């Protein structure tokens, strides 16, 4: 089997990231698989200078390793463009010049989709022959949207079981600036790297049907997905600045040792008793993903500092 760690250098690695990467690492290493690392640095302005190097350093500090050299998405833009062009040529994607505000005000798009954005009403379907025509007719750069002709792509998740796989509206696969959307980039990369398992937090569960559609459209074999609960603050809400600084850099600067941090994450995941210290390698012998609680995991960094 082949798994992967895929950090995004949009900020410092925090407790929630560390928990997910720990579980992804354990799932692969406990079964003797190969674990790859990919830096997903295509999120434009949100990418922070130096964040990628800090993330790799934090992963090593935790005791998480990987096989081979890291792959960097910004060095693979030609592959994503080729995939987008292929979808366009097959008639599975089309140019779209609609702005977000235009979509939000469309009468047929009153509710939100899986990514908390407005559901696209299909305004540009069949409107332009290609990107050049869209530019000529509207004087706007066009994105590419994938044509969704069905409302659901059911699938079985390794952790949460059978999922209905609802999809709301046509979705973007290439942005206006020619850069890839997340959905397309991860599909192209996971397929190219031979990834057979993707373990990630369940905030990405709703993205999976879209990705499965792209695998099918491009003639690629999808991996098995496993979506684990988010790590949330003591108030039950997703970790954010309101919960204080939960970054690994902050914890390291205050003297928290990796054994203490990994032991705490293992406790939250139902893998070790409260207060027990350990490193990732210590968890391999009896690791079972089924031991992880199915509800959101509540973290409190006061237990660490």
Short structural summary:
This protein is α/β, with parallel strands linked by helices and 305 residues long.
Tell me what the structure shows.
α6 packs across α7. The protein is elongated. It has a 3-stranded parallel beta sheet, with helices on one face. Strands 4-5-8 form a 3-stranded antiparallel beta sheet. The chain has a two-stranded antiparallel sheet with strand order 6-7. The two termini are 37 Å apart. The chain is of the alpha/beta class. The protein has helices spanning 15-29, 51-62, 77-89, 100-105, 131-138, 182-192, 208-217, 248-253, 258-268, and strands at residues 2-5, 34-39, 71-72, 93-96, 143-146, 155-157, 161-163, 171-174, 197-201, 224-228, 231-232, 297-298. The chain folds into 2 domains: 2-74 and 229-303, 3-Layer(aba) Sandwich (Rossmann fold); 77-183, Rossmann fold (3-Layer(aba) Sandwich). The chain contains 9 helices and 12 strands. The model has no long low-confidence stretch (mean pLDDT 91).
Structural class: alpha/beta
Helical residue percent band: 25-40%
The CATH topology assignment of the largest domain is Rossmann fold
Low-confidence sequence ranges: none
Assigned CATH architecture of the largest domain: 3-Layer(aba) Sandwich
What sequence of helices (H) and strands (E) makes up the elements?
EHEHEHEHHEEEEHEHEEHHE
Give the topology.
Layout: E1 2-5, H1 15-29, E2 34-39, H2 51-62, E3 71-72, H3 77-89, E4 93-96, H4 100-105, H5 131-138, E5 143-146, E6 155-157, E7 161-163, E8 171-174, H6 182-192, E9 197-201, H7 208-217, E10 224-228, E11 231-232, H8 248-253, H9 258-268, E12 297-298
Parallel strand pairs: 1-2, 2-3, 9-10, 11-12
Antiparallel strand pairs: 4-5, 5-8, 6-7
């Amino acid at each position: 089997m082949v798994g992967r760690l895929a950090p995004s250098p949009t900020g410092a690695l925090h407790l929630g990231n560390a928990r997910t990467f720990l579980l992804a690492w354990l799932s692969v290493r406990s079964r003797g698989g190969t674990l790859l690392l990919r830096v997903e640095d295509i999120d434009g302005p949100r990418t922070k200078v130096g964040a990628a190097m800090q993330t790799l350093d934090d992963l090593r500090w935790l005791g998480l390793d990987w096989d081979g050299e890291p792959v960097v998405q910004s060095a693979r833009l030609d592959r994503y463009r080729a995939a987008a062009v292929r979808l366009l040529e097959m008639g599975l994607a089309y140019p779209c010049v609609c702005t977000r505000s235009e979509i939000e005000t469309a009468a047929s798009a009153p509710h939100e989709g899986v990514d908390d954005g407005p559901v696209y009403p299909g305004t540009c379907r069949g409107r332009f022959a290609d990107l050049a025509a869209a530019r000529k007719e509207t004087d706007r750069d066009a994105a590419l949207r994938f044509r969704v002709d069905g409302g659901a792509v059911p699938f079985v998740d390794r952790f949460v079981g059978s999922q209905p796989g609802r999809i709301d509206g046509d979705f973007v696969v290439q942005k206006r600036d020619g850069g890839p959307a997340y959905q397309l980039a991860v599909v192209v990369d996971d397929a190219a790297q031979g990834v057979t398992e993707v373990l990630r937090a369940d905030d990405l569960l709703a993205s999976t049907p879209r990705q499965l559609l792209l695998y099918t459209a491009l003639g690629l074999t999808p991996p098995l997905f496993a979506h684990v609960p988010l790590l949330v603050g003591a108030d039950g809400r997703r970790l954010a600045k309101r919960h204080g600084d939960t970054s690994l850099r902050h914890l390291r600067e205050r003297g928290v040792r990796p054994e203490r941090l990994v032991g705490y994450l293992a406790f939250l995941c139902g893998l070790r008793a409260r207060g027990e210290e350990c490193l990732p390698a210590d968890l391999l012998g009896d690791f079972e993903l089924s031991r992880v609680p199915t509800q959101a995991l509540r973290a409190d960094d006061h237990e660490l500092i």
